[in-house]
Write a structure and sequence with these properties.
Pdz3 Domain; single chain; 22% strand; 9 helices; 51% helix
Length: 346
Amino acid sequence: MILTIAAAVFVFGLLVLVHEFGHFVTAKMTGMRVDEFAIGFGPKLVSRKHGETVYSLRAIPLGGFNDIAGMDPDNNTAGERGFCAKPVLSRMIVILAGATMNFVLPILLFFMIFAALGEMKPSSEPVIGEVIAGFSAEKAGLKADDRILSVNGQAVTTWNEFTDKIKGVAEEQDILLQYKRGEEIGSVSVTPQFDKRANRALIGVQSSVVYSELSVPEAFALAVNHTRDITVAMLEAIVGLFKNPEQTDQLAGPIGIVQMSGQVAERGFIPLLNFAALLSINLGIINLLPVPVLDGGHFVNLFIEAVRGKPLGSKAVAYTQRVGIALLLMLMIFATKNDIVRVFLK
């Protein structure tokens, strides 16, 4: 429990803090007045004023916020240095900076991982790298580092041979796996589960991995490409949700993310960094969706202002924000329902 809480605080805190730091830096660069930059929420524990900005550490260590003067045009106390008084382009830069930092962060995290460990590639050896919780392999007692020797009496010498034989098994048909663990040889009966999304039988194992050293430029290039590929895959997954609404049961909310944080943290700090990078990309994409109250929605309003030559009326903005809040609440409730079913009822 303590590890799960610590992992969740680290992941949520890092992602939100980096996001808000993007808004903070660009607000300063474009001449806006920032009244406070806070790490965490709730009551202040420590605060110090430097120049015109109060820097504070607060009691709830989840993310942070910055108070940019003039975000509300009807309550602009900063005059020409207020957010609302700045040119549209400056405001667009500040609004987009938070999500942009959520794409910069994974590049940095992946770069550190690749520079330290090298490039990770699946091993061709029929050796289990990870046993996924809840699947039949775990229930049968298979463990990481077990070498698969045969499937239903047929010898396998590569991971692809092993997975090909699993794919060909009919749903709910038991298979006999012979494996080597250390110097001991054993066998277990495993019942594959048919996965509709993968459209094949699975027993819940992943291959082991091998690492190849990379130079600093190679590590950085790989980090950029890896971030790009994951972003494209996530965008395709979001489009897939609209095409196949039945897949929405895969959505996870805060409870699910907290649980996953703890599970990943048990595997080590590097997997936790990788998980944080994936969530950061996800947060960046979500924030750029053209939904009122999200950064993407604010950007759309600014774009309309640039085209019209004047901002939207306060009533129109208030109406769109209420719609946006309602949509986000509905999504949060649905995702939380999925979390409860997945975590507590299965």
